[in-house]
């Protein structure tokens, strides 16, 4: 979490936090805070402020929107998801299909390249398809699918497109308007902010979305999706996180600074990921789950160690080198099941960020070699 994030949250809380729509100063300040938060996300993702809604987390927002979309889904309709996705961008739509009698189709993943198989995309996305959900980057293997191709096919048959940008947003610039999707999700904690879910819903869909809400609550967008009292201090922290990202960019406007910052972040992280991946690929005891060099990827590197339980390895790294390395399926359980990796505790995953240094990569290198030597 960035220091600007912490400062923003503390300043809001200590300044007399209040709920919305009152006549007094602290309430008016909270009204302004929400508008500033929406504008901040609009500047980051190139969407309209009224298309931005906040919530508990991406998963909760996805289930809420799925429930609302049930009005438009009927028996025999088709919903398309992928085998590469985090289940948060699968199960809300699978549940929607089950409730409405729709058919679920999966875009398969190639188990050798860890990329989506799109050769039969026209057969998967048809005139019966009503919704297509796809990740903008795998949260385990880092693959960035060609979402533009998927969106184009979905739009050709009149289907809605849902993008899971939770893992993508921290790593490269995103342009919601240019993409032409209908719904995009991200989470502030992934880009140096607090735990706060964010949904971007195109105004055309958002206006007609019959959300579940309390009767007296607003009927206009985006407020109608924000049930209950929001995490106002979290939104203050979000603005701090965006301010931190701005410091890494250049330009005369915030959108320019945010976009150039994300471009700079991608360049830095790609260099670090290449160095890390090259080292891992040299070790015969290591299996790296990484798409080919010509496939765009985020700096998330997953691997397993031969005859080693992944959780035991991560515990060893934490105890002996104080390295915070995670293990498991990371809710990409479809991919985990297809690869059969849960018998050894799932993946070991290294996720790089702008603050990671060459020295930290070297420390991990030393730690892994030490671990392998000890186990020899």
TrEMBL record:
Q: Which domain of life is it from?
A: Bacteria
Q: Which residues form the Aminotransferase class V domain?
A: 3-364
Q: Which InterPro entries match?
A: Aminotrans_V_dom (IPR000192), PyrdxlP-dep_Trfase (IPR015424), PyrdxlP-dep_Trfase_major (IPR015421), PyrdxlP-dep_Trfase_small (IPR015422)
Q: Which GO terms describe its molecular function?
A: transaminase activity
Key word Transferase present in the record? yes
Pfam families with a match to the protein in the record: Aminotran_5
Which keywords does the record carry? Answer: Aminotransferase, Plasmid, Pyridoxal phosphate, Transferase
Establish whether keyword Transferase is in the entry: yes
PANTHER family for this protein: CYSTEINE DESULFURASE (PTHR43586), PYRIDOXAL PHOSPHATE (PLP)-DEPENDENT ASPARTATE AMINOTRANSFERASE SUPERFAMILY (PTHR43586:SF21)
- By what name is this protein known? Aminotransferase class V-fold PLP-dependent enzyme
Q: Which organism is it from?
A: Hymenobacter volaticus
């Amino acid at each position: 979490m960035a220091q600007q994030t912490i400062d923003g949250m503390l300043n809001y809380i200590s300044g007399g936090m209040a709920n919305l729509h009152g006549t007094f100063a602290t309430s008016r300040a909270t009204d302004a805070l929400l508008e500033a938060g929406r504008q901040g996300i609009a500047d980051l993702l190139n969407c309209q402020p009224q298309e931005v809604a906040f919530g508990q987390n991406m998963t909760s927002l996805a289930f809420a929107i799925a429930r609302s979309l049930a009005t438009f889904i009927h028996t025999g309709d088709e919903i398309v998801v992928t085998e590469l996705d985090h289940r948060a961008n699968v199960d809300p739509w699978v549940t929607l299909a089950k409730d409405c009698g729709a058919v679920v189709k999966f875009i398969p993943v190639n188990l050798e390249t860890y990329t989506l198989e799109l050769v039969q995309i026209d057969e998967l996305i048809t005139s019966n398809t009503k919704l297509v959900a796809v990740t903008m980057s795998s949260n385990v293997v880092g693959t960035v699918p060609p979402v533009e191709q998927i969106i184009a096919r979905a739009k050709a048959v009149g289907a809605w497109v849902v993008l899971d940008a939770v893992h993508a947003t921290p790593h490269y610039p995103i342009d919601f308007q240019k993409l032409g999707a209908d719904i995009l999700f991200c989470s502030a904690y992934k880009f140096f902010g607090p735990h706060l879910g964010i949904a971007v819903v195109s105004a055309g869909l958002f206006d007609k979305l019959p959300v579940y809400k309390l009767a007296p609550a607003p009927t206009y967008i985006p407020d109608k999706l924000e049930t209950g009292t929001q995490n106002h201090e979290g939104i203050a922290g979000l603005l701090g996180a965006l301010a931190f990202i701005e410091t890494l960019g250049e330009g005369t406007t915030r959108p320019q600074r945010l976009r150039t910052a994300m471009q700079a972040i991608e360049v830095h992280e790609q260099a670090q990921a290449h160095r890390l991946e090259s080292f891992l690929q040299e070790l015969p005891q290591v299996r790296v789950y990484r798409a080919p060099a010509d496939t765009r990827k985020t700096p998330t590197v997953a691997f397993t160690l031969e005859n080693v339980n992944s959780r035991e390895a991560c515990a060893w790294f934490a105890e002996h080198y104080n390295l915070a390395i995670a293990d498991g399926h990371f809710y990409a359980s479809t991919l985990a099941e297809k690869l059969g990796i849960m018998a050894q505790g799932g993946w070991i995953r290294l996720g790089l960020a702008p603050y990671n240094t060459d020295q930290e990569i070297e420390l991990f290198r030393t730690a892994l070699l030490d671990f392998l030597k000890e186990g020899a």
